[in-house]
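Researcher: I'd like a candidate sequence for this fold, 228 residues long. If you have to choose between options at a position, lean toward the conservative one.
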């Protein structure tokens, strides 16, 4: 009897999938990028404009580099900017970044429940893998999808979420996405997926709209749904 009960509980999310963003959702890491932006621009005598971080939040790495060069009339190439940012962030992601509260426990419970898990991120492998290893979540995921895998299309389009569902072998309607950015939440909804929003300070300005659009909102993964 106990074995049957255990088996039933372990399969409550069979055939379902959860797709997670990293920065600002699973990882409490947005402060790292804020500091990188501040340090990077201060080296060039530039103060970070109020709208800069919000504007680049949903872009992929190269898009941010190209936008930054254009906005501030920099002489750097996109490759030079990305290398500099990567070097500044690599140590922080491998040693300082932490998981959002109860994220590790939540991933473990979803995995036990029979759900398939994917990461959908703009982070390059040099940052995401050390960070995921550092906080102890790397082995939970069946699939990791990057914006690079969808032709550098950012999260302002649903491509990355649809590819994650395809690689997991599930229908978009059977996926629940966890995101912190309004633009990304819109895209996931456009893909036909349920969306839970994780609060992050970087999205404070958009929080009222996020609350209206998302299927649910979180400040802590202890509040996250157990059934997808």
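Model: Candidate sequence:
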């Amino acid at each position: 009897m106990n074995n049957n009960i255990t088996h039933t509980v372990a399969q409550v999310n069979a055939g379902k999938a959860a797709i997670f963003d990293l920065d600002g959702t699973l990882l409490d890491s947005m402060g790292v990028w804020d500091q990188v932006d501040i340090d990077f621009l201060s080296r060039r005598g530039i103060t970070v404009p109020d709208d800069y971080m919000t504007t680049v939040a949903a872009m992929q790495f190269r898009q941010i580099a190209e936008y930054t060069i254009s906005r501030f009339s920099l002489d750097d190439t996109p490759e030079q900017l990305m290398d500099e940012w990567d070097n500044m962030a690599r140590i922080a992601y491998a040693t300082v970044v932490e998981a959002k509260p109860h994220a590790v426990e939540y991933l473990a419970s979803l995995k036990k429940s029979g759900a398939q898990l994917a990461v959908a991120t703009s982070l390059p492998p040099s940052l995401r893998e050390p960070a995921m290893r550092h906080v102890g979540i790397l082995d939970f995921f069946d699939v990791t999808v990057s914006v690079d895998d969808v032709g550098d299309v950012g999260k302002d389009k649903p491509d990355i979420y649809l590819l994650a569902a395809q690689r997991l072998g599930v229908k978009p309607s059977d996926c629940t996405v966890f995101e912190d950015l309004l633009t990304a939440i819109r895209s996931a909804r456009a893909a036909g997926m349920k969306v839970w929003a994780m609060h992050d300070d970087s999205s404070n300005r958009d929080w009222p709209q996020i609350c209206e659009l998302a299927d649910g909102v979180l400040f802590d993964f202890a509040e996250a749904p157990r059934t997808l």
